[in-house]
Amino acid sequence: MIMGQKFKVIGSRAPRVDAPDKATGRAVFMDDLEFKDELVGVILQSPYAHARILDIDASAAKALPGVKAVLTGRDLPEIKYGVSPARYDEELLARDKVRYVGDEVACLAAVDLETALEALELIKVEYEPLPYVLTVEDALAEDAPVIHDAFPGNICAEVHQEFGDVAQGFAQSDFIRTDNMLNKRQDGAFIEPHRAVAVYDLSGGLTLYSSTQVPHYVQRTVSMVTGLDVGKVRVIKPYVGGGFGPKAEATPLDMCAAFLSIKTGLPVRMSYTREQVFLHCRARHQFNHTMKVGFKKDGAIMALDHQCTLEGGAYSSFGIATVYYAGSLLGAPYLLPNMKYDGLRIYTNKPACGAQRGHGGVIARALFEQQLDLVAEELGMDPVELRLKNIMEAGDVSCNDLAMSSLGMKECIEAVANGSDWQEKRGKLPPGQGIGMASGFFVSGAGYPIYRSETYHCTVTIKVQEDGGTVKVMTGAAEIGQGSDTAMAMIAAEAIGIPLESVRIVSGDTDHGVDLGAYSSRTTLMTGHATKQAGENVKDKVLTALAEELNVEKDRLDIVEGKVRIQGDGVDIKAVRQKYLKEHRGWEGMPRGEELTFSEAARVAYLKFGTIVGTGKYKPPVLGGKFKGAAVGTSPAYGCSAQVAQVEVDLETGQVRVLNITDAHDCGKAINLTSVEGQMEGSVSMGLGECMFEEVKFDDKGRVLNPSLGEYHIPTVMDMPRMNCIVVESNEPNGPFGAKEVGEGAIMPTIPAILNAVRDATGAAVDELPLTPERVLKAIMDKDKE
Fold it and tell me: This protein's superkingdom (predicted)?
């Protein structure tokens, strides 16, 4: 994209293409799907956090009228699966041992839910309870029970990295401080629970409908576990009621439904209850970060020594990537010459944690940004000034080899400082009120797929309908509420040169090509690239046909706003129309005008070449360094953001209320301004919840104590502050039309901005989340004692 280029579709405030369906209730979610003779499947889960399975007797369940199939681990192929091939540590149904309360033991299918639940109670399992561990400290103890035999120390994954010379960096520092932060594990809290319907057909093919955000990875995992060829497994994602990361892998529902449908030959529907959503988890880890930072007197950052432990639950899930992300994402957006990171992800007898919005980096960023404010106070500097002193710019490369092809970090910081009246408010607010700021940084698509492969990260096909009036975009990309369908439709329209109304989009189906899914904020940049290429392919074919027909050079032709633009004179459009009216009666009745329309030009192309299909594909170039773990954190581009939060704290009770947040995000080039702002607001909402309320609680047996949205507090409209969203555009050279991420990066500054505002209001730094009134009040009292 050339700076200053004028777009016709990109950068506007287009209505979402899925808005009519969702606003009228016509949108088809998993619960709206119906299949003839479908069965209902359910899963039997372990009541123990850790136990050996001695015997399973399912005879009574199998004999119950209406039960069509019962499966245990012994009935399935002895194969392990997971997210990363480096840690395939899960069994679909436990064969010998269960490792958390909720671990899957058996599944069955019956004619209705009542029969299925009755049959579930008839399955008798004899367990031998084993010692269990629920905390990192207990899991690392010398005499701790072993959760997986392959990992006798209960360490799922560990990272040890150093960039630069950290010891020398500290030796050259004038100020050194060490701080800690502990969060609690969270739930994704999406409105729609996981659901799946499997339909095995007579030709040996399996169609799986799943409320997933990664149809391709579900297809691959189901194929691997069932033994069906990948080409025999089709995954279709209907409308999805939220994902946020915990829907970024194949679930036991997907695979159990598949096996039960294969066994019965009938469609099988399975759903998690809300409690089962909490038991499956796969959401935010509990992190315990310790950071030692060194600074010069002028505010220059010299060194960071970072240690982190993650409580990961019973299985790996995304945990290997998570423990790397927790360190690598601190390499930017500040000039940090020396960085050391030691991270451990620990197995415990709790539900497995995985990926959640801002994967791996949210709590690390919260501590680091709080430290920046604490250092600014020691140095007598304004927090804004300290950040600008150390900011990276486009063209810079971090100490861990993350390349900043674009970076509007400086502009974001300046935008929120001006937009929040920072200078007018800081130090001048009434007692109990405070203002704080923070920055954020995140990938714009993971540079490498989860499994090692040369596959394209996405492919897109655009077909021009035979009348030329509509183009159909077909992609496997996962629209999960983030607005990707609208963005792809806008990119296609811009690339071809037609109005948005002329584009139809079909997505979320593995039959439409490969797309790795909605995770790591990848869709706008990666699927957008493939969509743009497919659109340009369509445009080139149409113009090639038209140039031949008009006997003019192709470079004299263009398509703009649905009309053919011709440079120069000497082209008789009327003669072309008359020829086609005479020879191809299909043109009769089409609208006539002074200009040749895209519809007419596309009809020319169809009659000359047949169906016009454009294809596009994308995978990133080779990225990152050569060190172990270098692939995690690499991206074709990086998004960045800044926020200023203003809070009010009751100094007698510790109750915190967030009054307003000013948020700026560098999204490269905004495809749809309204969607960008919506993603910014959604990120702030999730960040607010994690900072203020959210904590999954367990009893001493490993059972979840608050497995409902009535007991697990997420922000409501009553909790949300006033928001001022500022879109910063930096023109990303590696993005389609200059675009990059906004889906996850905007959550990064929310927690530390609130923490810094609370400290400004109270003088006390809180190092444990969530910010309950008790914790805030204790911090105030401890500060008063000092």
Answer: Bacteria
Distance (Å, rounded) from C-alpha 312 to C-alpha 344?
10
Q: What is the full DSSP assignment across 243-256?
A: -SSTTSS--HHHHH
What is the chain's alpha carbon radius of gyration, rounded to the nearest angstrom?
28
Q: Which residues contact 383 (CB under 8 A, 6 or more apart)?
A: 372, 373, 376, 436, 437, 756
d(CA 277, CA 273): 6
Name the H helices within 450-527.
Answer: 484-496
Q: pLDDT value at position 576?
A: 65
Q: What's 298-367 look like in SS3? A: CCCEEEEEEEEEEEEECCCCCHHHHHHHHHHHHHCCECCCCEEEEEEEEECCCCCCCCCCCCCCHHHHHH
> What's the whole-number average pLDDT of the chain?
96
How many separate helices (H) and strands (E) can be counted in the chain?
20, 25
Q: What is the DSSP string of 144-166?
A: PPPSSTT-TT-EEEEEEEEES-H
Q: From the centroid of its chain, how far is CA 207?
A: 25
Buried b (16+ CB within 10 A) or exposed e, 448-486: bbbeeeeebbbbbbbbbbeebbbbebbbbbbbbbbbbbb
CA distances from 359 to 31, 189, 244, 747 (A): 29, 16, 10, 10
Residue with token string 């297809």: 219
Helix spans in 184-251 (H):
215-226
Distance CA 516, CA 5 (A): 31
Amino acid 1: pLDDT: 37
Question: What is residue 2's predicted lDDT score, i.e. its pLDDT?
Answer: 40
pLDDT value of position 568: 86
Q: Are 321 and 359 in contact (CB under 8 A)?
A: yes
Sheet with strand 433-443: strands edge to edge:
433-443, 638-649, 656-666, 722-728
- DSSP summary character for residue 430: P
Q: Which amino acid is at 772?
A: T
3-state secondary structure of 33: coil
**What are the C-alpha distances in Å from 485 to residues 15, 402, 530?**
11, 29, 13
3-state helix, strand, coil in the chain (%, to 5): 35, 25, 45
Mean pLDDT by 10 residues, the chain (786 residues): 72 96 97 97 98 98 98 97 95 98 98 98 98 98 97 98 98 97 98 98 97 98 98 98 98 98 98 98 98 98 98 98 98 98 98 98 98 97 98 98 98 98 97 98 96 94 93 98 98 98 98 97 98 98 94 94 90 68 52 75 92 98 95 97 98 98 98 98 98 98 98 96 98 97 97 98 98 97 89
Name the nearest CA neighbour of 407 among 371, 438, 443, 372.
443
Start-to-end CA distance of the chain, whole Å, equals 57
DSSP label of 291:
E
Cα 456 to its chain centre, rounded Å, is 19
The strand pairing partners of 303, in sequence order, are: 294
Under 8 Å between Cβ of 694 and 770: yes
Distance CA 273, CA 624 (A): 42
Domains and CATH numbers, the chain: 19-27+456-618 (3.30.365.10), 33-130+191-242+247-280 (3.90.1170.50), 286-448+625-785 (3.30.365.10)
Burial degree of 146 (CB within 10 A; 0-12, 13-18, 19+): middle
Task: Name beta bridge partners: 623.
Answer: none
Q: Is-contact 187 694, C-beta < 8 A?
A: yes
Q: What is the phi/psi pair of residue 645, to 5°?
A: -115, 140
Q: Which residue has the tokens 């035999």?
A: 149
